[in-house]
Specification:
By secondary structure, the chain is of the alpha/beta class. It has 19 helices and 21 strands. The protein has a nine-stranded mixed beta sheet. It has a five-stranded mixed beta sheet with strand order 3-2-1-4-5.
Length: 585
């Protein structure tokens, strides 16, 4: 039986296809349209999922949408009333779109797909809960959802056992850790719903000198992690400008204008809200442990992407094991909704082995055959060298050791925001100079942004103070003191790193390449950053990879078994041509 889960109309639209309760395919719409955080109906992602499974919409047993239109309308109305009079204006603008778009989602789905079957609805928060627990490796666990404004609920915790999920406690809009963090993202001059990573990366450069100001004025925080916002300081009726004049007066000036110089104040503001957020999340986790009695924790929601806070939970020891949904946020809503349909609506049992999750390494998206890639290269007269697959690990390891920057395009595309070894840019973690070069000329992004390491799983504890695996790059851990000088390119200013551990069964070619580098250099760590440039999503197709490779100062590109040397390439006459793709295999 096939079930299709869909999320859209907020940000990070996505589709997920289950086959007999297991994930067959899942992808985000942005990867196809090349519009970062694309919120539109995920027609491309849906059609790819169906094509990958070799089915038509008529063969779907059930379609489920991750949100309930009436609950969404109630949220819009409550939001508007909470911020009267400015909220009334926003409501007048939002209500017609809700009526035209959200209220007719079932008709939209059926019209887009030519589907005549049943469409059911989850709630956004229920979808997040399901995305946290159902795919996890745990048969029984606590869950903690920390989000922006999913439905009315912004935070909840509870327990999952088998297919049964119980929410035991929750917080409601506008009292939201996610919205609080986003307000400071805006104030620091970054884009809301995408710049939160920048705020987290900037925080270690500052001092938390405003933390008490936040705790004394903006929120009333309790020991259990619940809090109340003083809404007089915020403008949540406006999705773009989240702070107001009272907020500016409290912090001594207006928000930083985007793309202007980052000052010490901006660093201190970032450090302050990061410290407060970590304290909130840690108190919530401790309360969840106390109330549920569980020793395993599943995390989801947009704030679960704050890998520094996740690392704090792990090091605190309140839970023995934690598992973080790698696509936390609205993308995971499609996946969670599909599991809601399978386990809750259809009543199917759930089994977990406490070792392996159900996400297949998060390699759930499009892949491309060597035949497709070679045909593309030949048609466009692109010079390449064809390698035998057993030779790829040593060849690429040699190039990395020679201080080259490598575009790596291998296997199925990742689901979620992190590059995990399918669409990555690789380099030598031992070379400190590569960090500034890659930020400036490869990624075209701010110089303060750190790079993440991938480490062979069996060597992780020797290089990082990490007591567990981190396959989805969602835990920040201290770099061990003896390793800091050895891998300066991935050691952040506070001596931490956002770690990905890799096992061979997750991605054999990627593992073997790092292993070859280790055998050559004695270092089992490489730089792994996402294969994209600033403002674009991860590359999806070979066309995207070639365009990105030619625009940025990468030295080599490996796609399948084909190696491209930048020195032998001719400039693209019109890189927009590479946005025209063919359906993947």
């Amino acid at each position: 039986m096939y079930i299709l889960g869909i999320s859209s109309f907020y940000h990070d639209s996505a589709a997920c296809l289950l086959k007999d309760g297991e994930i067959a395919a899942s992808a985000q719409e942005e990867r196809f349209t090349r519009k970062k955080h694309d919120h539109n109906f995920p027609a491309n992602a849906i059609h790819w999922c169906l094509g990958f499974a070799g089915i038509t919409a008529a063969e779907l047993g059930l379609v489920i949408f991750y949100d309930k239109p009436l609950i969404r309308f109630e949220r819009i109305l409550r939001n508007s009333l909470a911020f009267t009079p400015s909220g009334v204006r926003e409501f007048i603008l939002a209500a017609p779109l809700w009526y035209k778009q959200d209220l007719r989602i079932a008709d939209l789905i059926k019209g887009e797909l030519g589907y005549k079957g049943k469409v059911i609805f989850s709630s956004r928060h229920e979808s997040q809960v399901a995305a946290a627990f159902y795919p996890s490796p745990f048969q029984e666990a606590a869950f903690l959802i920390v989000d922006g404004a999913a439905d009315r609920q912004t935070v909840s915790f509870g327990t999952g056992k088998g297919r049964d999920i119980k929410i035991l406690s929750s917080m409601s809009f506008p009292h939201s850790p996610g919205l609080l963090y986003s307000a400071f993202t805006y104030y620091a001059g970054f884009k809301v719903n995408s710049g939160e990573y920048k705020l987290m990366g900037l925080a270690p450069y500052g001092r938390p000198k405003y933390a008490d100001l936040i705790l004394d004025n903006l929120i009333s925080l309790k020991d259990d992690g619940t809090f109340k916002l003083d809404t007089r300081y915020f403008n949540y009726s406006n999705g773009v400008m989240l702070t107001n004049r009272r907020f500016e007066e409290l912090f001594g000036g207006p928000p930083r204008k985007p793309e202007t110089e980052i000052t010490q104040k901006d660093m201190d503001v970032s450090a302050s809200i990061q410290q407060v957020t970590e304290e909130i999340i840690l108190r919530m986790a401790r309360q969840a442990r106390k109330v549920t009695g569980q020793d395993k924790l599943c995390l989801a929601g947009e704030v679960a992407l704050n890998c520094v806070a996740n690392g704090r939970i792990l090091r605190d020891g309140c839970f023995k094991e934690i598992w973080v949904q790698p696509a936390s946020g609205d993308a995971a809503g499609a996946l969670g909704a599909a599991f809601v349909a399978w386990h809750k609506h259809l009543g199917n049992k759930r089994q977990a082995d406490n070792k392996n999750d159900r996400l297949k390494g998060s390699f759930l998206g499009p892949s491309f055959s060597d035949e497709y890639i070679e045909d593309l290269l030949k048609k466009n007269d692109i010079p390449y060298r064809k390698l035998a697959y057993p030779d790829i690990p040593q060849a690429v390891a040699n190039l990395i050791e020679q201080d080259n920057v490598i575009g790596w395009f291998e296997g199925a595309l990742e689901f979620g925001p992190r590059a995990l070894g399918a669409r990555s840019i690789l380099a030598d973690a031992r070379n400190k100079e590569l960090r500034s070069r890659m930020n400036l000329k490869v990624k075209f992004r701010e110089s303060f942004r750190p790079f993440a390491p991938t480490v062979l799983a069996e060597h992780a504890s020797k290089w990082f103070d990490l007591g567990c695996q981190s396959p989805y790059m969602l835990l920040v851990a201290p770099v061990r003191e003896e390793a800091r000088l050895a891998i300066p390119a991935v050691t952040h200013v506070d001596n931490s790193a956002r770690v990905q551990t890799i096992k061979r069964e997750a991605h054999p070619l990627y593992y073997d390449t790092i292993d070859a580098f280790y055998k050559k250099t004695g270092c089992p760590v490489v730089i792994n950053t996402s294969f994209n440039v600033r403002g674009e999503p991860l590359v999806c197709r070979p066309e995207d990879a070639i365009r990105c490779f030619m625009r940025a100062e990468m030295d080599y590109l490996i796609m399948g078994c084909f190696l491209l040397d930048k020195r032998h390439q001719k400039p693209l006459e019109n890189d927009k041509d590479w946005q025209k793709g063919i359906e993947p295999d």
